[in-house]
Amino acid sequence: MLNTNELASPLWVLGTDTDVGKTYIASHIARSWAKSAGIVYRKPFQTGVDSDTDVNADAVKVRGPNITVETGLVLKAALSPLAAAKLEGIQIDLEKMFNWCKRPVPQGAKLILEAAGGVMVPLTEGILFANWASALGIPGIVVARGGLGTLNHVLLTCEALMSRGWKIAAVVLNPGLDQSFEAAVDNAKILERFLKVPIQIHEL
Q1: Which domain holds residue 124?
Q2: Is residue 176 part of a domain?
Q3: Residues of the chain with pLDDT under 50
Q4: Residue 202 CB: number of other CB atoms within 10 A?
Q5: What span, in angstroms and rounded, lies between the C-alpha atoms of 38 and 194?
């Protein structure tokens, strides 16, 4: 089980790809932290839903007692923010979204932010998420599958982040996605030899 006591606020929940369980892990952290503090969950870019109250919206999945959920820009197409915004004829204002993320939270509250897709997803022409968010100076955890391919995906993701000055608080393998529990144990041991960050396995 993911040890949330080793994680500190504020915190980005990042992924090696889309559908690796970022929202599931963010929800787990939020519910754990909410036992002792108020939580603010922010999703600056939400794609693939009609509104932030859509049953499939990430904020809806994270919402719970003592947890405030906030969504920045909602785009209907299940694509990168860049591609989804183009379909709707929208120009994403990254400075506005940057300031939206930086807003203070209530005193004593903890902040969780969740990215959209993988860390190299394009937000606008020429601007990748990893570049845009690095200036916030907020550490992140990297969520990944447990099985085949995760070594390559995790190492590439961590290299991309660290080369941009990110602090990686932990790598979290989520083997429940592909039922790769045995492989996740082996992969975690290998990743520990290459990355000087905590490697955790989230077991259901």
Answers
A1: 8-50+65-201
A2: yes
A3: none
A4: 20
A5: 36
**pLDDT of amino acid 178:** 85
Give the CATH number, domain containing residue 25.
Answer: 3.40.50.300
What is the set of active-site residues?
43
Number of domains in the chain: 1
Both structure tokens of 137: 């100076």
CA dist list (Å): 178 to 19, 45, 192, 201: 11, 26, 21, 13
Angstrom distances, CA of residue 137 to CA of 18, 80, 170: 23, 23, 16
The maximal CA–CA distance of the chain, rounded, in angstroms, is: 46
Residue 36 lies in a domain: yes
Give the pLDDT confidence score for residue 204 in this predicted structure. Answer: 63
Whole-number Å distance between alpha carbons of 146 and 201: 8
Residue at 127: amino acid letter: I
